[in-house]
Amino acid sequence: MKGGFISTVMHGHEMLETIHSLAPDAPAAAILRHAARYPILDLARPELAEITPEGADSAESMGRRLRGFERLRIFHSPVKRCQQTAECIARGAQRAGLQVEHVEVETALGVDYILDLTEAGRLSQIHGEHFVRLWVRGEVSPKIIRNTKYVVETKLACLTRRLREPVQGGRRLDLHISHDWNIMVLREHLLGVRHEEAGWLGFLDGLGLSLRSEALHVAYRQHSRRQTLPWPLE
Known about the structure:
Shape: globular
CATH architecture: 3-Layer(aba) Sandwich
Number of domains: 1
CATH superfamily: Phosphoglycerate mutase-like
Radius of gyration: 17 Å
Order of helices and strands: HEHEHEHHHEHHEEE
Distance between the termini: 25 Å
Protein backbone atom coordinates (compact mmCIF):
# COMPACT_ATOMS: atom_id res chain seq x y z
CA MET A 1 0.00 0.00 0.00
CA LYS A 2 2.85 2.27 -0.93
CA GLY A 3 2.04 5.94 -1.54
CA GLY A 4 3.85 6.70 -4.80
CA PHE A 5 3.04 9.06 -7.64
CA ILE A 6 0.54 9.06 -10.48
CA SER A 7 1.93 6.96 -13.31
CA THR A 8 1.59 7.55 -17.04
CA VAL A 9 3.28 4.25 -17.96
CA MET A 10 1.33 1.40 -19.56
CA HIS A 11 1.59 -1.57 -17.22
CA GLY A 12 0.81 -5.27 -17.45
CA HIS A 13 3.33 -6.49 -20.06
CA GLU A 14 5.24 -8.80 -17.68
CA MET A 15 2.01 -10.17 -16.21
CA LEU A 16 0.72 -11.03 -19.68
CA GLU A 17 3.97 -12.84 -20.51
CA THR A 18 3.63 -14.90 -17.33
CA ILE A 19 -0.03 -15.72 -18.03
CA HIS A 20 0.69 -16.75 -21.61
CA SER A 21 3.55 -18.99 -20.43
CA LEU A 22 1.27 -21.14 -18.25
CA ALA A 23 0.65 -24.73 -19.35
CA PRO A 24 -2.29 -24.80 -21.80
CA ASP A 25 -3.68 -28.08 -20.45
CA ALA A 26 -4.13 -27.06 -16.80
CA PRO A 27 -6.47 -24.63 -15.01
CA ALA A 28 -4.84 -21.20 -15.02
CA ALA A 29 -5.02 -18.13 -12.81
CA ALA A 30 -3.17 -14.96 -11.90
CA ILE A 31 -3.20 -12.72 -8.87
CA LEU A 32 -2.20 -9.19 -9.76
CA ARG A 33 -2.08 -5.72 -8.33
CA HIS A 34 -4.71 -3.19 -9.37
CA ALA A 35 -4.01 -0.60 -12.06
CA ALA A 36 -2.20 2.70 -11.42
CA ARG A 37 -3.97 4.80 -8.78
CA TYR A 38 -3.91 8.29 -7.40
CA PRO A 39 -1.70 8.85 -4.31
CA ILE A 40 -3.08 7.85 -0.91
CA LEU A 41 -3.74 11.13 0.90
CA ASP A 42 -5.50 9.86 4.03
CA LEU A 43 -3.65 7.06 5.84
CA ALA A 44 -6.83 6.15 7.69
CA ARG A 45 -8.78 5.77 4.42
CA PRO A 46 -6.41 4.24 1.85
CA GLU A 47 -9.37 2.69 0.04
CA LEU A 48 -10.39 6.14 -1.23
CA ALA A 49 -7.58 6.25 -3.81
CA GLU A 50 -9.11 5.27 -7.17
CA ILE A 51 -7.37 4.36 -10.41
CA THR A 52 -6.17 7.08 -12.78
CA PRO A 53 -7.33 7.45 -16.41
CA GLU A 54 -3.95 6.04 -17.46
CA GLY A 55 -4.51 3.10 -15.11
CA ALA A 56 -7.91 2.46 -16.66
CA ASP A 57 -6.37 2.50 -20.15
CA SER A 58 -3.64 0.04 -19.11
CA ALA A 59 -6.16 -2.34 -17.56
CA GLU A 60 -8.42 -2.29 -20.60
CA SER A 61 -5.41 -2.80 -22.88
CA MET A 62 -4.35 -5.78 -20.79
CA GLY A 63 -7.78 -7.34 -21.25
CA ARG A 64 -7.61 -6.84 -25.01
CA ARG A 65 -4.22 -8.58 -25.17
CA LEU A 66 -5.20 -11.79 -23.37
CA ARG A 67 -4.62 -14.76 -25.70
CA GLY A 68 -5.19 -18.51 -25.60
CA PHE A 69 -8.36 -18.46 -23.48
CA GLU A 70 -12.04 -18.64 -24.33
CA ARG A 71 -13.48 -17.87 -20.90
CA LEU A 72 -12.52 -15.37 -18.21
CA ARG A 73 -13.56 -14.98 -14.59
CA ILE A 74 -12.45 -11.94 -12.61
CA PHE A 75 -12.47 -11.66 -8.83
CA HIS A 76 -11.47 -8.48 -7.02
CA SER A 77 -10.78 -7.06 -3.59
CA PRO A 78 -13.64 -5.08 -2.02
CA VAL A 79 -11.55 -1.90 -2.43
CA LYS A 80 -12.96 0.27 -5.22
CA ARG A 81 -9.75 0.61 -7.25
CA CYS A 82 -9.63 -3.17 -7.59
CA GLN A 83 -13.24 -3.23 -8.79
CA GLN A 84 -12.44 -0.48 -11.30
CA THR A 85 -9.43 -2.46 -12.56
CA ALA A 86 -11.53 -5.62 -12.91
CA GLU A 87 -14.22 -3.81 -14.89
CA CYS A 88 -11.66 -2.27 -17.25
CA ILE A 89 -9.94 -5.61 -17.88
CA ALA A 90 -13.33 -7.23 -18.48
CA ARG A 91 -14.27 -4.55 -21.01
CA GLY A 92 -11.02 -5.07 -22.92
CA ALA A 93 -11.37 -8.86 -22.83
CA GLN A 94 -14.92 -8.72 -24.17
CA ARG A 95 -13.73 -6.54 -27.03
CA ALA A 96 -11.11 -9.20 -27.78
CA GLY A 97 -13.83 -11.87 -27.99
CA LEU A 98 -13.42 -13.59 -24.62
CA GLN A 99 -16.50 -14.70 -22.74
CA VAL A 100 -16.40 -12.93 -19.38
CA GLU A 101 -18.37 -15.20 -17.08
CA HIS A 102 -18.51 -12.76 -14.19
CA VAL A 103 -16.76 -9.98 -12.31
CA GLU A 104 -17.34 -10.30 -8.59
CA VAL A 105 -15.98 -9.22 -5.23
CA GLU A 106 -13.85 -11.67 -3.22
CA THR A 107 -13.26 -10.65 0.40
CA ALA A 108 -10.15 -12.83 0.68
CA LEU A 109 -8.37 -10.57 -1.85
CA GLY A 110 -8.73 -7.53 0.40
CA VAL A 111 -6.82 -6.16 3.36
CA ASP A 112 -9.01 -7.04 6.33
CA TYR A 113 -5.92 -8.52 8.00
CA ILE A 114 -4.79 -4.92 8.64
CA LEU A 115 -6.43 -4.34 12.01
CA ASP A 116 -5.34 -0.72 12.45
CA LEU A 117 -5.17 1.07 9.10
CA THR A 118 -4.03 4.38 10.54
CA GLU A 119 -1.12 2.90 12.49
CA ALA A 120 -0.11 0.55 9.67
CA GLY A 121 -0.07 3.53 7.31
CA ARG A 122 1.95 5.61 9.74
CA LEU A 123 4.54 2.87 10.20
CA SER A 124 4.81 2.31 6.47
CA GLN A 125 5.53 6.01 6.00
CA ILE A 126 8.18 5.98 8.73
CA HIS A 127 9.95 2.84 7.52
CA GLY A 128 9.19 3.04 3.79
CA GLU A 129 9.70 -0.21 1.90
CA HIS A 130 11.47 -1.67 4.95
CA PHE A 131 8.07 -1.92 6.66
CA VAL A 132 7.35 -5.08 4.67
CA ARG A 133 10.59 -6.67 5.95
CA LEU A 134 9.62 -5.82 9.54
CA TRP A 135 6.21 -7.36 8.91
CA VAL A 136 7.62 -10.55 7.39
CA ARG A 137 9.99 -10.91 10.36
CA GLY A 138 7.10 -10.60 12.80
CA GLU A 139 8.31 -7.27 14.20
CA VAL A 140 5.01 -5.43 13.76
CA SER A 141 2.43 -5.80 16.51
CA PRO A 142 -0.34 -8.34 15.72
CA LYS A 143 -2.74 -5.71 17.06
CA ILE A 144 -1.86 -3.66 13.97
CA ILE A 145 -1.54 -6.33 11.27
CA ARG A 146 -1.81 -10.10 11.21
CA ASN A 147 1.30 -12.11 10.36
CA THR A 148 2.30 -12.78 6.76
CA LYS A 149 1.85 -16.55 7.06
CA TYR A 150 -1.85 -15.97 7.76
CA VAL A 151 -2.09 -13.69 4.73
CA VAL A 152 -0.42 -16.26 2.46
CA GLU A 153 -2.56 -19.12 3.73
CA THR A 154 -5.84 -17.25 3.21
CA LYS A 155 -4.93 -15.93 -0.24
CA LEU A 156 -3.60 -19.30 -1.39
CA ALA A 157 -6.73 -21.08 -0.17
CA CYS A 158 -8.87 -18.67 -2.21
CA LEU A 159 -6.78 -19.10 -5.37
CA THR A 160 -6.64 -22.90 -5.24
CA ARG A 161 -10.34 -23.21 -4.41
CA ARG A 162 -11.21 -21.32 -7.58
CA LEU A 163 -8.71 -23.29 -9.67
CA ARG A 164 -10.41 -26.54 -8.59
CA GLU A 165 -13.82 -25.42 -9.82
CA PRO A 166 -14.90 -27.29 -12.97
CA VAL A 167 -14.62 -25.71 -16.40
CA GLN A 168 -17.41 -26.09 -18.93
CA GLY A 169 -16.34 -25.45 -22.49
CA GLY A 170 -13.05 -23.91 -23.55
CA ARG A 171 -9.94 -22.92 -21.65
CA ARG A 172 -10.60 -20.61 -18.70
CA LEU A 173 -8.48 -17.99 -16.94
CA ASP A 174 -9.16 -16.65 -13.46
CA LEU A 175 -7.85 -13.17 -12.66
CA HIS A 176 -7.69 -12.09 -9.01
CA ILE A 177 -7.25 -8.32 -8.56
CA SER A 178 -5.60 -7.51 -5.24
CA HIS A 179 -2.97 -5.29 -3.55
CA ASP A 180 0.81 -4.99 -3.55
CA TRP A 181 1.39 -6.14 0.04
CA ASN A 182 -0.72 -9.27 -0.49
CA ILE A 183 1.11 -10.31 -3.63
CA MET A 184 4.57 -9.41 -2.33
CA VAL A 185 4.25 -11.70 0.69
CA LEU A 186 2.93 -14.46 -1.59
CA ARG A 187 5.89 -13.87 -3.91
CA GLU A 188 8.34 -14.14 -1.04
CA HIS A 189 6.83 -17.07 0.86
CA LEU A 190 6.12 -19.16 -2.24
CA LEU A 191 9.10 -18.30 -4.45
CA GLY A 192 11.67 -16.73 -2.12
CA VAL A 193 11.58 -13.46 -4.09
CA ARG A 194 12.30 -10.52 -1.76
CA HIS A 195 11.32 -7.00 -2.69
CA GLU A 196 14.77 -5.74 -1.73
CA GLU A 197 16.17 -7.66 -4.71
CA ALA A 198 13.22 -7.82 -7.12
CA GLY A 199 11.84 -4.34 -6.46
CA TRP A 200 8.42 -3.21 -5.34
CA LEU A 201 5.53 -4.88 -7.13
CA GLY A 202 4.32 -2.71 -10.01
CA PHE A 203 0.76 -1.99 -11.08
CA LEU A 204 -0.90 -4.87 -12.98
CA ASP A 205 1.97 -7.18 -12.02
CA GLY A 206 1.75 -10.39 -10.05
CA LEU A 207 1.96 -14.17 -10.00
CA GLY A 208 0.75 -16.75 -12.50
CA LEU A 209 -0.61 -20.09 -11.25
CA SER A 210 -1.76 -23.39 -12.69
CA LEU A 211 -2.97 -26.57 -11.04
CA ARG A 212 -2.60 -30.16 -12.20
CA SER A 213 -3.30 -33.22 -10.03
CA GLU A 214 -2.98 -31.16 -6.83
CA ALA A 215 0.45 -29.88 -7.88
CA LEU A 216 0.43 -26.10 -7.93
CA HIS A 217 2.79 -24.25 -10.27
CA VAL A 218 3.57 -20.64 -9.31
CA ALA A 219 5.51 -18.29 -11.58
CA TYR A 220 6.89 -14.75 -11.37
CA ARG A 221 9.18 -13.58 -14.18
CA GLN A 222 12.08 -16.06 -14.29
CA HIS A 223 11.16 -17.57 -10.92
CA SER A 224 8.89 -20.61 -10.70
CA ARG A 225 8.14 -23.53 -8.42
CA ARG A 226 5.89 -26.57 -8.53
CA GLN A 227 4.68 -27.97 -5.23
CA THR A 228 2.14 -30.60 -4.22
CA LEU A 229 -0.60 -29.14 -2.05
CA PRO A 230 -0.84 -28.32 0.77
CA TRP A 231 2.02 -25.91 0.19
CA PRO A 232 4.45 -26.02 3.14
CA LEU A 233 5.05 -22.65 4.78
CA GLU A 234 7.86 -22.15 7.25
